[in-house]
Amino acid sequence: MLVATTETIAHHRTIRTLGQCFGVVVRSRGLGGNLMAGLRSIIGGEIKEYTEMLEEARRHAVDRMVKNATEMGANAIVMMRFDSSEMGQTMSEIVAYGTAVLTEPE
Question: Is-above-0.70 flag for pTM?
Answer without folding.
Answer: yes
